[in-house]
């Protein structure tokens, strides 16, 4: 009898301890939940590209302030760690804050590429409908040319007309670890230019246009890095030749595709006339 009473007392004590443990766990979970609701959640970048809503900034505020200050030193000190350190000091941070940029001076190149691309829409405005005295609204091709020239002009303005700095940027972009982000920015630039030019294609040419424009821009930018003509007139002429080549080759390729389609249909009809069921 005494053994049963002792066992019953022990079980009751264990049950009471379990209840207290569950109560404490529930209270802690509720407090954590309420705290997480009060704390601001980190912003998440979208995985898609939309023109209806603004894109999130490419860098957080601290990195933005450092890079924007550092880029003002690029014309004199180049795409270097020195420019990054000077920018950190100008922005009110210690030199050690450059550790925020594991890619080092290449981050200055990416800053230049991104800010130039995202600023195109505010620097180039096309009148619509045409203003008085104009013959008509610019075509898509003319708009593409104007946008490419404006982007190239951005290299001159941002780098103080120093072509050596452009060569430095191109050299950094050519490094193996930097090629993927550089190619992505090149693609995004082509996409932005075609969109701003008013291209609304929804067929396979959507991809070929962007790939073609990317190759034209890359070749023209390399040519610009060695251009010594006044106001970079030779670069503009080089661009016109490349665009004309792509227009002619593109038209020839379309003719080849149409000819191939015609020949294939003619062959099918010939086989059907011979009694073969296709």
UniProtKB/TrEMBL annotation:
Residues 179-247 form the COQ9 C-terminal domain. Residues 20-59 are annotated as: Disordered. The keyword Mitochondrion applies. Residues 22-39 have a biased composition (Low complexity). It is found in: Mitochondrion. Its main location: mitochondrion. InterPro entries: COQ9_C, Ubiq_biosynth_COQ9. This is Ubiquinone biosynthesis protein. It comes from Neodothiora populina. The lineage of its organism: Eukaryota, Fungi, Dikarya, Ascomycota, Pezizomycotina.
């Amino acid at each position: 009898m005494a053994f049963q009473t002792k066992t019953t007392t022990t079980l009751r004590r264990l049950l009471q301890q379990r209840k207290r443990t569950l109560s404490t766990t529930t209270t802690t979970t509720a407090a954590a939940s309420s705290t997480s609701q009060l704390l601001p959640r980190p912003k998440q970048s979208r995985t898609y590209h939309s023109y209806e809503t603004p894109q999130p900034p490419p860098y957080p505020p601290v990195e933005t302030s450092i890079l924007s200050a550092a880029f003002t030193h690029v014309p004199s000190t180049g795409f270097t760690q020195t420019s990054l350190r000077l920018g950190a000091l100008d922005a009110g941070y210690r030199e050690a804050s450059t550790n925020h940029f594991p890619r080092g001076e290449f981050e200055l190149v990416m800053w230049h590429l991104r800010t130039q691309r995202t600023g195109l829409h505010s620097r180039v405005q096309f009148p619509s409908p045409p203003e008085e005295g104009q013959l008509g609204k610019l075509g898509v091709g003319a708009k593409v040319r104007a946008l490419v020239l404006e982007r190239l002009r951005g290299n001159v303005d941002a780098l103080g007309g120093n072509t050596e700095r452009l060569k430095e940027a191109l050299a950094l972009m050519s490094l193996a670890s930097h090629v993927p982000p550089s190619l992505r920015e090149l693609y995004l630039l082509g996409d932005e230019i075609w969109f701003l030019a008013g291209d609304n294609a929804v067929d396979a040419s959507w991809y070929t246009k962007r790939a073609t424009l990317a190759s034209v821009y890359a070749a023209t930018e390399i040519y610009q890095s060695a251009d010594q003509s006044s106001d970079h007139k030779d670069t503009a002429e080089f661009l016109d030749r490349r665009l004309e080549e792509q227009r002619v080759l593109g038209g020839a390729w379309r003719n080849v595709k149409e000819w191939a389609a015609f020949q294939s249909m003619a062959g099918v009809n010939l086989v059907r006339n011979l009694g073969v069921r296709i």
